[in-house]
Predict the structure.
Amino acid sequence: MKVLVPVKRVVDYNVKVRVKSDGSGVDTANVKMSMNPFDEIALEEAVRLKEAGEVTEVVAVSVGSAQCQETLRTGMAIGADRGILVETSVETEPLAVAKIMKALADKEQPHLIILGKQAIDDDANQTGQMLAALLGWPQATFASKVVLEEGKVTVTREVDGGLETVSLTLPAIVTTDLRLNEPRYVTLPNIMKAKKKPLATVKPEDLGVDVSPRLKTLKVVEPAKRSAGVKVPDVATLVQKLRFEAKVI
Ligand code: AMP
């Protein structure tokens, strides 16, 4: 049983992002980049399924620049058996990534594709759903528990006010929520071992996918700065300020 895990290289979640001065996007020059946290969870889950003897191969795939090799090596240090880099200098949109994953799924024939629920840079939350539609496979999004059984996967999903459990026939798409698992730390011996694992590079054209953007970013702006708070001496002043300055009562 084979599992495919798409992993995206994004600005590290600890970095305070800066908007480019021309408002065309976010500055990524000299910024720490890491694997999208939800993809780390997806990979951890696939590796745990392998360690439990239910999966035989875990393949990590990344779409982006040559630097994504680093992300794939981290993925292999977590436990992926091999990596595929789909190299492009275009900033890919979810539909393009979904088309690439569809082409790779046709080639690799995985039984399960586990994606992050969203990439923390574009916050699109679209790729998994689009991929399910393109493949015509069932999907379970926002998984907080994944159980593999004979020809099926049972997924518990966090929904408003509770948990929903769905059963899907394989092959299927699962997207991960934050509480699915806690990814392991990569150890030095595993980083060394990962260097020897196979990493293939292909281009979107080799897969017959056109990645040209379909969306135009009009502008990106920083969130408005919050003004400093003030201390009031008593309730009367507070009421006065709320009524006449903030005009909320
Ligand atoms: P998004 O729809 O952009 O929020 O991304 C959802 C998920 O799709 C991510 O968590 C990844 O698993 C996958 N994904 C999106 N973009 C890429 C990419 N460039 N390379 C690999 N996987 C990606």
